[in-house]
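name: query_chain
kind: protein
chains: 1
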Amino acid sequence: MTREEDIWACQECGKLHGRHDLWFEGDICEKCNAHIDVLVGCEESQAITKELRALGIRAYSCDLLPCSGGHPEWHIQGDVFQVIYDHPEIKMGIFHPPCTYLSQSGTQWYYHPDDKHLPAQLRRPHPKYPNRAKDRDDAIDFVKRLYETDIPKIVIENPIGALSTAWRKPDQIVQPWMFGDEANKATCFWLKGLPLLEPTNVVGKGEFFEFVGNNGKVKRQPMWYYKALSEAKTPEERRTLRSKTFPGMAEAIAKQWGL
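structure:
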């Protein structure tokens, strides 16, 4: 016979369980603990996941890397497509596909540096990166597969680059300075089932670092970007710093697009 004090109700679904069934801190049953409302894919920083969680939304980050956001209990380390397959209940997906082969800044690595005078179709592959074109095509296919999943609401986030020409133009391009962070970083959104993100606090565009390029012309980089390139100790750390989501934008995404 079960004693009354051994009975507890799941805070998510309300179903009664025996005390031996306690699964997760806060009296949440195993079935509800595995439930995902919002999946933030390719996000190890958990910047958006934490903002969604602060609103009481059952969001999980997912990445091939372990999370650096401090909440491994909200992180799934693994293949994003496997998570989507295992959780048909997902209502919204916010995806940050790796931009290494998609960004505009990476186009210099497609072709042989001695072939700049030739039309693109006649140029040889870059000697250091002979598979760059295939890597780009695979990255574009990855994005299309994410967008074509059955998740009803989807956000694809990426910088200006190959997706705009090889797939379609973004629905929106925003900047961190539109959401309270004084920084310049053009961010493209491709949306499905969602409205445009509305600016919340327009501020200055932040500092810039000026330098002379190899061609003798003065160039400008946002200061945050310059510091990310100069302070990172490894290529992996550099990629992580460059792909950061600024706090104001993460908060706006959670509050405006959260369920």
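note: Residues 132-147 form the longest helix (16 residues).
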